[in-house]
């Protein structure tokens, strides 16, 4: 890996923050979350055989319910509406 400047790092962080905000906003709408609920979206290194080197982890924290975790097997910037629909369906199944 070559030299990476601080400006490059800041730009990468800004792009990730923008992508995370986009995914969070879509999830809030798709899941019908209220101001009492929260959602966390993070890009993480993934060493599991079923996912690429980088995956996206979504935590759904509904008030007075256990936190639920969902993994999307692609980087944050590559998350699609179909992935978010899958999170919505999995979250609905896990709530019963």
Q: How many discrete domains? A: 1
Number of helices: 2
Q: Largest sheet, order of strands side by side?
A: 1-2-3
At the third CATH level, what is the topology name?
Double Stranded RNA Binding Domain
Q: In angstroms, what is the radius of gyration?
A: 15 Å
What is the number of E strands? 3
Structural class: alpha+beta
Helix percent reads 40-55%
- CATH architecture classification name: 2-Layer Sandwich
* Distance separating the two termini: 47 Å
Q: What best-fitting shape do the alpha-carbon axes yield?
A: globular
Low-confidence runs: none
Task: Summarize the main sheet.
Answer: 3 strands, antiparallel
Q: Would you state the CATH class?
A: Alpha Beta
Give the SSE string.
HEEEH
Task: Give the arrangement of secondary structure elements.
Blueprint: H1 6-31, E1 38-45, E2 54-61, E3 68-72, H2 81-95
Antiparallel strand pairs: 1-2, 2-3
Write a concise keyword list for the protein shown above.
96 residues, alpha+beta, Double Stranded RNA Binding Domain, three-stranded antiparallel β-sheet, 2 helices, 3 strands, globular
Outline:
With 96 residues, this protein is an alpha+beta fold. The protein contains 2 helices and 3 strands. The mean pLDDT is 91.
How would you describe the overall organization of this protein?
The chain contains 2 helices and 3 strands. The chain is α+β, with helices and mostly antiparallel strands and 96 residues long. The protein has one domain: Double Stranded RNA Binding Domain. The longest helix is centred in the first third of the chain and has 26 residues.
């Amino acid at each position: 890996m070559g030299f990476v400047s601080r400006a490059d790092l800041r730009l990468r962080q800004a792009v990730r923050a923008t992508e995370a905000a986009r995914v969070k906003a879509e999830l809030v709408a798709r899941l019908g979350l209220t101001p009492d609920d929260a959602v966390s979206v993070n890009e993480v290194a993934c060493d599991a055989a079923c996912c690429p080197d980088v995956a996206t982890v979504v935590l759904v924290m509904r008030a007075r319910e256990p936190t639920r975790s969902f993994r999307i097997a692609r980087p944050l910037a590559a998350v699609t509406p179909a992935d978010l629909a899958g999170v919505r369906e999995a979250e609905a199944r896990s709530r019963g």
